[in-house]
Amino acid sequence: MFKRLSLPDVSAQKTVIVYFDGRQVTAQDGDTIAAALLSAGVEACRTTPVSGSPRGPYCMMGVCFECLVEVDDKPNVQGCQVLVKDGMQIRSQHGARRLG
After folding, report:
1. pTM for the full predicted model
2. Each residue's pLDDT tens digit, 65-94
3. 62: DSSP letter
4. What mean pLDDT is predicted for residues 12-24?
5. Element (DSSP H or E) covering residue 33
6. How far is residue 65's CA from residue 75's CA, in Å, rounded to a whole number?
7. Distances (CA, A) of 83 to 52, 64, 98
8. Beta strands 54-55 and 74-78: pairing type?
9. Strand (E) positions, the chain?
10. For strand 89-92 and strand 15-20, is the pairing parallel, antiparallel, or unpaired?
C-alpha cells in the first residue's frame, strides 16, 4: 500500500534505527515517525477509545490525529509531525488518550 519514492542519490541517505512496540525498524533520516512506520508495513499505531478499532496514519499533515503514538514514554505524539531519531522508542497507543 505505501511505497517509498526512489530518490536520485538514495545511497547517501543516512539510516536510523527506531523501535516500534519492541520491534526494530530501519528508517531514513528525515522520515517522520508515521512515514517510517508505513514503510515498515505497520498499518495501525493506535486503537480508538470506544470500540478499540485500529487506526493508522491518514492525512500525514497533522489534521486527523489518527497517527497518535507514545514516543520515549510521552503519550499523544502525532507521528506525522515528528522526525525519527536514532534509538527512539515508539509504542502504539491504546484506548483513551492520557493527558500529559
Report:
1. 0.86
2. 999 999 999 999 999 999 999 999 999 999
3. S
4. 93
5. helix 33-39
6. 12
7. 27, 18, 22
8. unpaired
9. 15-20, 23-28, 46-47, 54-55, 68-71, 74-78, 89-92
10. parallel
